[in-house]
Amino acid sequence: MSIPGPDEVPFNGHPSTEANLNLYRGLVSPYYILLTNDDPLRRAFVLSTRLVDIGAKIPEVEEEFSEMAEECRSLGVDLLNQVRNRDEAAAILNCGDEVSPVIHGDDCKVKLSGLNMAVHHHQEKFVANRWSQRMVKECWYGPYHKPSSTGLAEYLRGMVLMLLTPILALIYLVAPMSRAGRFIRTPAVRFSMNMASFMTFLILVVLR
Predict the structure, then answer these.
(1) How far apart, in whole angstroms, are the C-alpha atoms of residue 35 and residue 29?
(2) What is the dihedral of CA 108, 113, 114, 118, to 10 degrees?
(3) Domain total for the chain?
(4) Same domain for 5 and 73?
(5) What is the DSSP letter of 2?
(6) Are residues 33 and 67 in the same domain?
(7) Which keywords does this Swiss-Prot/TrEMBL entry list (predicted)?
(8) Is there a single domain that holds both residue 72 and residue 111?
(9) pLDDT lower than 50: segments of the chain
(10) Torsion sign across C-alpha atoms 7, 45, 15, 36
(11) What is the pLDDT of residues 17-71, one digit of tens each?
């Protein structure tokens, strides 16, 4: 016997309908979600959004539905907190899709569809988790980024890349498929080079 989905549960809006509330409590149980769904992460995110919407329409039980929505949000965070290495984090954030070795830049295979889904459903704690942030930085900075880099170090790194833009552009023209070329294709490097080009253009306009 399965518990009906949130759209299938009849709810008359009265807080004394304990049977209906119990159905929802069963629906958001982490054990039930994990055992009955091929994609428990998506299910938890969708449920949390749905429960918030229902609670907003029924003020009498809004607090109960908010608590159940928070329980759904906690499921994804708890899964990430159990991660032991980068491959496990990639499997969760990629929603179980096949994860090929990361080729940074335009060919990055880690699409982070799970993280995109979390953003869509306003899962702030999931997005802020250290593993989520690490995978985002990996795709943004490439294999040369150190997780322990400080904000100042990243700022200085960006400044150096901007100053080296002419040299980097020449290297990419000569050997786009080399290791250096793949490094130049990473979003962080391309952003720094675009900023350097834009600032150079502004300076030339002002000097005229």
Answers:
(1) 10
(2) 120
(3) 3
(4) yes
(5) -
(6) yes
(7) Ion channel, Ion transport, Membrane, Repeat, Transmembrane, Transmembrane helix, Transport
(8) no
(9) 1, 10, 13, 15-16, 98-107
(10) positive
(11) 677 788 888 888 888 888 888 888 889 999 999 888 888 888 888 888 889 999 9
